Amino acid sequence: MIPTRIEIIPSEGIVEQVTALVPLSTTLTVTCLPHHGIERTMRAAVQLSLHGYSVIPHLAARSLPGRVELTEILRDCNVAGIGEVFVIGGDRKQQAGPYGSALPVLEDIAQYTGGVMRAGVAGYPEGHPAVGALDLVDALLAKQHLATHVVTQMCFSAPKILDYAALLRREGVQLPVWAGVAGAVPRTKLVSLAAQIGVGSSLKFLSRKGPLARKLLSGDRYSPQSLVTGLQSQPGSIAGIHLYSFNNLDAVPDGPDQALTPAALQPALIRRATRDN
């Protein structure tokens, strides 16, 4: 079974929602949005870690005011028992401090923690609107000695994700690849999100698949189950699933053998998250 991590957005009340609905054995990642800032990410991450969750805060380089603030964040992580972060460049138009990309943040994290802090970095199976494909691979090659894994941008095509993982191996990037997968979400919201973050080509891939597309995108809610099944077709290619929950956490499992009916996540995915993390 593929291990699963669940990404949440640090919106108002999310800590209470998670502690009420999500098993403590679940690994959580806390995103960092430009309009929220890193402070909200770290506040939610620390609170959830102190509740007993394994938590991975996102650190957006362009949202970091400076090295002093990064040091304080790493100290907070140490106090809260957080041993892993996810470092991205970020979408903030005007950078808040000296960091314009993930690499210098990773370098400072390694320096401050002596290499103890684990760090994930981002990958783009469908490319990046502002960076060329070769530059993206070169950037991963430059960062891999400072990182522990790659998390892909949300994608809806298992072949694209698997081809991307194979491409990285051919180019010398040996980091484990976690596949970014959307959880169950209202279809209209999913299409809107896909357009905003530039993953439309994998949705077009679905549209060419006839019955598969109808199965995935029919009704009111998208289901990731077929995508996850496709990722499992090549064992060893994918290290795990990074599940974008969109904060849709509507049910609580009473135990590992109970039937699970969450609105945000497929039952099999929640079961893996509670068992494998």
From TrEMBL:
PANTHER family: METHYLENETETRAHYDROFOLATE REDUCTASE, METHYLENETETRAHYDROFOLATE REDUCTASE (NADPH). The keyword Oxidoreductase applies. It catalyses: (6S)-5-methyl-5,6,7,8-tetrahydrofolate + NAD(+) = (6R)-5,10-methylene-5,6,7,8-tetrahydrofolate + NADH + H(+). Keywords: FAD, Flavoprotein, Oxidoreductase. Its cofactor is FAD. InterPro entries: FAD-linked_oxidoreductase-like (IPR029041), Mehydrof_redctse-like (IPR003171). Belongs to the methylenetetrahydrofolate reductase family. Pathway: One-carbon metabolism; tetrahydrofolate interconversion. It comes from the Bacteria. This is Methylenetetrahydrofolate reductase. The lineage of its organism: Bacteria, Bacillati, Actinomycetota, Actinomycetes, Micrococcales. Gene3D superfamilies: 3.20.20.220. It comes from Arthrobacter humicola. Pfam families: MTHFR.
